[in-house]
Amino acid sequence: MTATEFIALPEAPTIALGAGPGFVVELEAFSGPLDLLLHLLREEQLEIADIPIARIADQFLRAVHELGLNQAADYLDMASRLVRLKAQMLLPRKVDEDGWEDPRAELVRRLLEYQQIREVAVWLGRAAERRAEQFARGYLPPAPALPPPPLTLSLIDLLSAIDRVIVGIPSPVLHKVVARPLDVESATRRIEDLLAGQEQIRWFDALGSGATIADVLSTLLALLELARRGSLRLLQPTPFSPMVIARESPRPAA
Amino acid sequence: MNPLAQLLEAALFSACRPITAEELATLDPDASAAGVRVALEQLREHYDFNQHGVELVEMAGGYQILTRPVYAAAIERAQFTVRTPKLTAATLETLAVIAYRQPVGRLEIEEIRGVSAGGVLRSLQERSLIEVVGRSEALGRPLLYGTTALFLELLGLRDLIDLPKAEELTIALRPHRATSEGSDDAAAYVEAES
Amino acid sequence: MNPLAQLLEAALFSACRPITAEELATLDPDASAAGVRVALEQLREHYDFNQHGVELVEMAGGYQILTRPVYAAAIERAQFTVRTPKLTAATLETLAVIAYRQPVGRLEIEEIRGVSAGGVLRSLQERSLIEVVGRSEALGRPLLYGTTALFLELLGLRDLIDLPKAEELTIALRPHRATSEGSDDAAAYVEAES
């Protein structure tokens, strides 16, 4: 089973961690990094108050990677916190040192708090389901021709509206900064076209003539991306020698 | 009431339209057409005999539970059926933009909200919440909108400066005219439009 | 049923939201608050005693007639109406934070849930389940959110106090700021944690 195969398990998602080749999980099963963390702790039957940080940090990183959550900033943020904690826990400290604050305290506090909220959320969900079992009157006859009731407008409503508008504003509208945009796509195409014709090209071939700074950056990003995908190899035969860009025969997708 | 009559009452109450006897029969696989008729009759009699405020009405080939006409006047006066006409989200958002950016043109409003604003602007004008306050210097000399006295009245504000300040909001909005120096602001404004 | 109970039944039938006792009292200039209460009680008893398919429910500070839960499945199968869709985990968690911590700002919500909250907050506001209730004194004066009457309606709650109490939860909730003294609160919280 590969990481791309997901089975919907709405109530209690089970993750085969470590033992199996990958995860069986519904992405939507997690509402955030704290949720994933709680899940890992539960799976391993670990106490929140005494988290083995090293172990749980590794598992979290693996889960984030295998669930394809690498794109989600919130998960990455938590991952970096865990890695930092792991490092802090490794720092030596005197046995009888007073005033030593467990670096995990903040995380433990957040997890407990989040667990409470989860409990309330479950309660709310049940209440909403019970309520959904009862229907209000459906059919309403057309409204009588009465003068419309007076208009209501409150400052609170207006504030809410402003809030919504602000959330939706893409950027300050006063200034339109037109940056020279990076065009990684075109650079990628150019490199791919070149490599289709010949086994190896040089950095200057990839760049083309009359390259601007934006072009140089675009080409560099395109090369790095193609190398990451395994479409090409970047070689430098000797120190300071020109970079050689070599075609890579396509591998079967992982 | 027999169990089928109870089920029919619940169904008729919750339905979004009049329901025919045939449709009602689908509620209970064990119910016969005759059974549904009997249950409907029982429901009607129950409402009449116990002097309920509602009655079972047959119309347009279907059944509905309706309030008795005698109560219509009192209910209409109380206006429970219509929610107080709150402004829609789109209207409020447009109004919010105008309140903070006035005088402001349609283009800027549309740019901020990301949707066309023609209809909403018209309806806000019809409700006398906004009015045309001038024309921009920009190409085509577009109309500029501002809020009205009624707008302040509905919000219970004495003046526009009673609105929460831009800098108090999450993201600083452009300060409105009343709080800033005319010349600088105007300069910034022309810039924004071009 | 007495005449007032009939009028109230008709009015409640014609409304599609909970109606408060005060609103109901406006239906009849001669009705006292006590009279309305008695009539509502009579109506509730009549529905229960005669085993109607509907019942009188007290909710969100008002009264509403709703179908009994036992008929939901049959009515849905017959497609006379549809059930409200389930709320997502993200929505429920955000509502939980706001319900217990209100008035609460976006930052605190995001801190507790560990994820950004902009999208969920916007959608909750659009559905009128939460509203802006003020602004914090903190830096940037961020907007503070609270739950609405529609939130109570959606959950079938009479009041916010129907929410589970801190001591009813497996883990004691930190009492929210408005109701407790800072220092005691912090001490109590640390205790609950250990």
The share of residues in extended strands of chain A comes to: under 5%
SS elements, strand count of chain B = 5
Largest interface: A-C, 48 and 61 residues
Q: Roughly what is the average pLDDT of chain A, rounded to an integer?
A: 75
Number of helices of chain A: 8
Task: Give the SSE order of chain A as H and E letters.
Answer: HHHHHHEHHEE
Q: Indicate the low-confidence ranges of chain B by residue numbers.
A: 170-194
* Main β-sheet, spatial strand arrangement of chain B: 3-5-4
Biggest sheet of chain A, strands in spatial order?
Answer: 1-3-2
Helix content of chain B: 40-55%
Order of helices and strands of chain B: HHHEEHHEHHEEHH
| CA radius of gyration of chain B | 28 Å
CATH architecture of the largest domain in chain B: Orthogonal Bundle
Give the overall form of chain B: elongated
Distance between the termini of chain A: 12 Å
How many strands, what sense, and barrel or not for the largest sheet of chain B?
A: 3 strands, antiparallel
Please report which band the strand proportion of chain B falls in: under 5%, 5-15%, 15-25%, 25-35%, 35-45% or over 45%.
5-15%
